[in-house]
């Protein structure tokens, strides 16, 4: 069985139910203010931000950096992985 990941922080789990039951430290509302959200894409060797095209080898490292082209404004949101 393949792992499932959170699109905000890259935390992985063996099941959707266990992933989405835990609080996410990089949730857009703030740390611990929302649950993990399923990344619906497949596992990849490289993840690309859907807003600016930056890439990284993991969702965790991609989403730990602010995005210059985020819809909320430059520096007002993190990169988000494209599917």
Polypeptide structure, described:
The longest helix is centred in the first third of the chain and has 4 residues, at 16-19. The mean pLDDT is 93. The chain is flat and about 35 Å long. The chain is built from two helices and four strands; from the N terminus they run ββαββα. It has 83 residues and is low in regular secondary structure. Helix content is 10%, strand content 10%. A hairpin with a 6-residue loop joins strand 1 (4-5) and strand 2.
Question: Which features does this protein show?
Answer:
83 residues; little secondary structure; two-stranded antiparallel sheet; two-stranded antiparallel ribbon; 2 helices; 10% strand; flat
* Averaged pLDDT: 93
Structural class: little secondary structure
Q: Give the overall silhouette.
A: flat
Overall strand count: 4
Helical residue percent band? under 10%
The biggest sheet, with number of strands, parallel, antiparallel or mixed sense and barrel status, is:
2 strands, antiparallel
Number of helices: 2
Q: Tell me the radius of gyration.
A: 12 Å
Provide the low-confidence segments as ranges: none
H and E string = EEHEEH
Beginning-to-end CA distance, first to last residue: 20 Å
Strand order of the largest sheet: 1-2
**Share of β-strand residues:** 5-15%
Layout of strands and helices, then pairs:
Layout: E1 4-5, E2 12-13, H1 16-19, E3 47-48, E4 55-56, H2 59-62
Antiparallel strand pairs: 1-2, 3-4
């Amino acid at each position: 069985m393949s792992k499932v990941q959170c699109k905000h922080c890259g935390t992985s789990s063996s099941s959707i139910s266990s992933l989405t039951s835990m609080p996410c430290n990089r949730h857009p509302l703030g740390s611990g203010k929302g649950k993990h959200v399923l990344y619906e894409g497949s596992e990849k060797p490289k993840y690309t931000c859907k807003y600016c095209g930056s890439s990284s080898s993991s969702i965790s490292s991609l989403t730990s950096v602010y995005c210059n082209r985020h819809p909320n404004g430059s520096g007002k949101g993190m990169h988000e992985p494209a599917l």
